[in-house]
Design brief:
Oligomer: single chain
Shape: globular
Radius of gyration: 17 Å
Order of helices and strands: EHHHEE
Strand content: 15-25%
Number of helices: 3
Length: 97
């Protein structure tokens, strides 16, 4: 095995998200959020959080926001998508109080 190889997984393709991806991104985001935080929250809190933050219309608005770059990584069959959203422009430096 080559020591420089991190993974032998299928090649991933990275592309910019389009408005057509909004529903899939909402589903991926909601599922990931649920899997990460459900154990530490009530069912009602999770329902409210998921309904308020992971709606397709909100994802579509972020995709269309010129100040954000929303990127997707997916395999050749468009499975196992990953999301990355980054703000454009100057980075902000955090200052300690």
């Amino acid at each position: 095995m080559n020591a420089n190889v991190v993974s032998h997984a299928a090649a991933m393709r990275i592309r910019r998200a389009t408005a057509d991806d909004a529903e899939a991104l909402a589903e991926i985001g909601a599922r990931t959020f649920f899997e990460t935080f459900a154990a530490d929250n009530t069912a009602e809190d999770m329902r409210l959080l998921l309904e308020s933050a992971w709606r397709p219309d909100l994802q579509r608005a972020e995709i269309l926001d010129a100040g954000l770059d929303t990127l997707l990584a997916c395999d050749a069959r468009r499975r196992d998508r990953r999301i990355c959203a980054a703000a454009r422009g100057a980075s902000r430096r955090l200052e300690s109080p």
